[in-house]
Amino acid sequence: KSLIRSRSFGQKITDVRYLQQAIITHVVRGAEKLRQEGLVAGVLSVGISTSRHAPNRSYGRASVELSKPSNDSFVLSKIAADLFRQCYKSHDEKGEPYQYTKAGVTFYDLQKDDSGTSSFFDFLNTDKSEVMIALDKINRKFGSNAVVLASQGTPDKLRGMKAANKKDKAEWSMKRNHMSPRYTTVWDEVLKVKIG
Fold it and tell me: Dihedral (C-alpha) 5, 147, 101, 104: value to the nearest 10 degrees?
C-alpha cells in the first residue's frame, strides 16, 4: 500500500523556499490522511521535477526507510526536508536555473497504527500524539490550514485568503482558472440573486 500527495505548480518555481514549502505541505496533508485512516508509514519518498519539455530537465527523488513507522507531521516534515535537500539542484552545468513544475511525496509500507504495542520508551512520545490530535481537531473545526507548521509558509497564503481585493495564494499553488464554482460547499461562492 502507498499514499501519494503530488501537485503541478501554477507557475515555474526556482526559489528553493517555495519548493520546500510545497514538499512540507504535502507531507503534513499526507500525515493527516494517514492519521484519519489509522495508518503509519514505514518509508517516505520525496520527488521534484521540471517540465519534461524543458531544455534543462531535472528530476530528483530521495527515499528513506523510517526507523519507526510514523504519521507524526513534525517527524515526517523534518525527514522530508532532509530528503528534499538531497534531491534539489538549483541549476544545470551551464549555470541556468532549473524551473521546477511539480513536487510530491509518497508514503510506502503503510500499516495499522499500533502505537500501543511499540517499545517501552514510547511513553516519551505521548505528548506529540496529543499535539497531532489537537492539530487535526483545530484544522477540522476552522478549516484546512487553520494551523500550519512554520516550514509550510503562512496560513493565509495556504488558504488563499483575499488580501487587498486580490487573491493571495502560495507561489507554488496550482492554477485554478477553469475550476468549477463550489456553490454547495463554499459560502463565499454561493450565487447571489438580486430581485427587482
Answer: -20
- 77, 151 Cβ separation under 8 angstroms: yes
Residue 170: strand, helix, or coil: coil
Which residue's entry shows cell 463565499? 188
Cα–Cα distance between 39 and 59 in angstroms, integer? 29
* Global confidence as pTM: 0.71
3 state SS of 180: coil
CA–CA separation, 165 and 146 (whole Å)? 21
Using one digit for the tens of pLDDT, what is the confidence trace for 136-188? Answer: 777 777 777 667 766 666 555 554 544 433 455 565 555 556 667 777 777 77
Q: How far apart are the first and last CA of the chain?
A: 58
Kindly report the length of the chain. 196
Alpha-carbon span 175 to 153, nearest angstrom: 18
- Cell triple for 195: 430581485
Residue with cell 503534513: 28
Per the listing, cell 534531491 goes with 87
CB within 8 Å of 134: residues ≥ 6 apart? none
Torsion sign (Cα): 6, 99, 82, 128:
negative
